[in-house]
Design brief:
five-stranded antiparallel sheet; 2 helices; nine-stranded antiparallel sheet; about 775 residues
């Protein structure tokens, strides 16, 4: 029930060290970082690869990487057989050194003889062979899918149907000491027991979607791993089951046995969003193997019988979900278990146990083989197969480790001794823009010439034929100028060649570069309503207005200068409580710099109809400015903000980005009120008046009788929307003799008042 996944590479992060300021670069005497005046930023970046996580992002060949971030020659994965099948699901070995492998999309059992020749041992009518087990007389039991059967294939290749179960998939086979064959099936989660003469019956129903792995203990108990949910069962000969582990993963894929009574289970999850390497079949694709809806697998359960070691065991909480794609669980004979290794971004598929007790784990999607050892467990990248997934591992009687791989399907073997030479290609470094390269240096425990480094560069994210060729070898670990052409992307290669008895060890590589300086960008300017200001956060108790700097004493509280910590990209400041201050105008803008340079801002203004800009303020560090507009005549204005990255660049390299605001009105003059003589008609007196404003519309007009409450009066056309409005106030006899006060407010909150003279006739 193995499902393989293909995913795009995630974004890579290494150690970045940025040195602020305009000083040159100095690494190992490398003041030699080329500066392109006016083009290159003055802030160098150092890319350091020094941890196991860093090194694992690159490609290795015949090198190992331990938990401490040390890289050294490791065993080579030599090719045993290259097949035409895209997938090899399982592999078993004969006592004479013969290998058999079950393939996908072809439904074949492939045989590699002692002479190394590859041949087809059995070609099943079905499309997948996931399960193999030794049969009497040097033959094989073969479990196929979908709608599969169990075949018995004799040593000479003749075959017969051994058992036809109800299940659609046959995932694993195991043979007990009496020759009974046990079959793990799906999609009903059944385990079958088949006698040597081919008579089968249900042995146990797991209530899981699929049973995907089987193995026997020395005492004859059956260990089974399931999918949906990912559980480990122990089942006695009478069919009585006990759940040893309920993992948070969906599947436990294969089982392996060792000698001290400990069970190892390899659990795996399918990450969301990953595409399957094998898709479900359609009617139009009769040759494609169907794959069930199983997204995780039990990759191995190993039982080691014997006394329990003295190491303490921590029982994780049942709900403790792991963060990676898979994990190795260890179940001790007393039932206590722990998750001894989280595989992170690598999906584990199978494991074998070494004589020393260490585990070798085959993974995808980069074909890595890890050695897990120690308590607490520590992982070393031992080797890497030239395939995407290592789907099965086994140890031959001779001690040789053989693996089956997929994408492409091949068999490989690990050499018993470390290779004499290995190579490593780093992850591709994205400088963000075209960069000037500095020096490259490294730390290693090696004799001269045992570690050499090369570089290449290009302007595509994936190296192709447009990239530069690999450079000459750099031999000075203290630092050499990178000779690859200036470009956006950089990659380095390290070659470790053992010339003596002690293998070379590489521990870190550092490269330096200066990205091409990019122009700052102001994406928006917000013009707040006139009079709207914001109290500075964390004020001292006095009224401090954010963005307002005024050295003239007046009624307004003076604010302190903005702090210089406006952020590398000129991000908007945190605005405090909104308040109103007549005559002030607040502007807030958003600015970005792709180089993460520190920015400073100049603010300029012009009146509508003018062409020259006048400076309001220079070298602001926060993207906010408050203008006291009483210093200029009323009118329609624009402001322009210029963002400069000069604080992070030399004068010749600094760049400026600008943006103009929308137009806005400045109006600090109150409207005029022209009152006409009162006119009397009968018992009522009418007061007519006109309100004018030179800059903004008349917004509100009110009147009061002898300083009583204010009453709103509307213009004669009913809508207060223009700079000139006509009004009338009608008074009855009781009101006509009282003093009438008129108050007019324009759109900019300027207020004026006038008194209307109304004489009362005496009869």
């Amino acid at each position: 029930m193995l499902r393989l996944f293909r995913r795009s590479r995630p974004s890579r992060r290494h150690v970045d060290i940025r040195v602020r300021g305009a000083r040159g670069l100095a690494i190992g005497g490398a003041a030699a970082l080329t500066l392109c005046a006016g083009l290159v930023a003055a802030t160098p970046t150092f890319w350091t690869v020094s941890t196991q996580a860093d090194f694992l992002k690159g490609d290795v060949e015949d090198l190992s990487i331990d938990r401490d971030g040390r890289m050294f020659p490791g065993p080579s994965a030599s090719l045993v057989a290259e097949t035409a099948a895209p997938f090899l699901w399982t592999v078993v070995a004969g006592t004479d050194g013969t290998l058999w492998a079950g393939s996908g999309n072809e439904g074949k059992v492939l045989k590699v003889g002692k002479d190394g020749k590859l041949s087809t041992f059995f070609d099943a009518p079905e499309l997948e062979v996931h399960a193999l087990a030794a049969a009497p007389g040097g033959g094989l039991y073969v479990g196929t899918s979908p709608d599969g059967k169990i075949y018995q294939v004799a040593a000479d290749g003749t075959s017969k149907t051994f058992f036809d179960p109800e299940g659609k998939y046959i995932w694993a086979l195991a043979v007990d000491k009496s020759g009974n064959v046990f079959a793990a099936t799906g999609d009903k989660g059944l385990i079958y027991k088949i006698t040597p003469d081919g008579k089968g019956e249900r042995f146990y129903k797991t209530n899981a979607g699929n049973v995907v792995s089987l193995a026997f203990t020395k005492s004859g108990e059956l260990i089974a791993g399931t999918e949906s949910p990912g559980r480990v069962f122990r089942i006695d000969s009478g069919g009585k089951a006990f759940v040893l582990l309920e993992s948070p993963f969906r599947e436990i894929h294969a089982v392996r046995l060792a000698d001290d009574g400990t069970i190892y289970a390899v659990a795996v999850n399918a990450a969301q969003g990953e595409s399957r390497v094998t898709d479900p079949p359609t009617a139009a694709e009769p040759t494609r193997a169907p794959v069930p809806s199983v997204s995780t697998e039990i990759t191995a359960i190993t039982i080691m019988e014997g006394p329990v070691g003295p190491a303490p065991v921590t029982q994780p909480a049942r709900s403790n979900r792991r963060g990676g794609k898979g994990a190795i669980y260890r179940i001790r004979p007393d039932g206590l278990w722990d998750a001894m290794w989280d595989s992170g971004e690598d999906a584990p598929y199978d494991l074998v146990i070494e004589p020393t007790g260490s585990l070798l784990v085959g993974t995808g999607t980069e074909g890595k083989i890890f050695r897990i050892s120690g308590d607490p467990a520590r992982a070393t990248l031992l080797a890497r197969a030239t395939a995407k997934q290592v789907t099965a591992l086994l140890r031959e009687p001779s001690g040789r480790i053989v693996g089956a791989a997929s994408n492409p399907g091949k068999l490989f073997a690990l050499s018993p001794a470390p290779a004499r030479r290995g190579t490593y290609e780093s992850d591709v470094r994205d400088a963000g823009t075209v960069a000037s390269w500095g020096v490259i240096r490294w730390r290693a425990s090696a004799a001269p010439g045992e570690v050499t480094v090369f570089t290449r560069s290009g302007n595509t994210a994936t190296p192709d034929d447009t990239w530069s060729a690999w450079s000459k070898a750099y031999a000075n670990p203290g630092g050499e100028q990178i000779v690859s052409p200036n470009a956006r992307y950089l990659q380095w290669r390290a070659v470790l060649a053992a010339n003596g008895s002690q293998p070379p060890v590489l521990t870190s590589v550092t490269t330096a570069y200066l990205p091409r300086n990019l122009r700052p960008e102001i994406s928006s300017i917000t013009v707040h309503p006139a009079g709207t200001v914001f109290q500075r956060p964390f004020s001292t108790g006095e009224l401090e207005i954010a963005g307002f700097e005024d050295n003239t004493p007046d009624a307004r509280a003076q604010s302190q200068p903005a702090s210089a910590g406006g952020g590398p990209s000129g991000s908007a400041p945190a605005l405090g409580r909104r308040i109103y201050q007549k005559g002030l105008q607040t502007f807030v803008w958003k600015a970005d710099d792709e180089n993460d340079d520190r920015l400073q801002f100049d603010v300029m203004y012009r009146r509508e109809g003018e062409t020259s800009w006048k400076t309001l303020h220079r070298a602001l560090t926060d993207p906010i400015f408050v203008w006291d507009t009483t210093s200029v005549p009323d009118g329609t204005y624009f402001i322009k903000v210029a963002a400069s990255d000069a604080p992070s660049n030399s004068p010749g390299a600094a760049l400026v980005g600008e943006l103009e605001s929308v137009s806005f009105d400045i109006d600090n003059t109150a409207p005029k009120i022209d009152v006409q003589p009162a006119a009397r008609a009968g018992a009522r007196t009418t007061i007519a008046f006109v309100v004018r404003d030179d800059q903004s519309s008349v917004q509100r007009v009110e009147y009061s009788l002898d300083a009583s409450r204010w009453r709103v009066v509307y213009p004669k056309d009913g809508i207060p929307d223009s700079r000139r409005e006509e009004f009338e106030v009608s008074l009855d006899q009781t009101e006509a003799g009282r003093g009438v006060i008129i108050r007019a407010t324009d759109a900019m909150n300027n207020v004026s008042t006038a008194v209307a003279e109304v004489r009362r006739d005496n009869h």
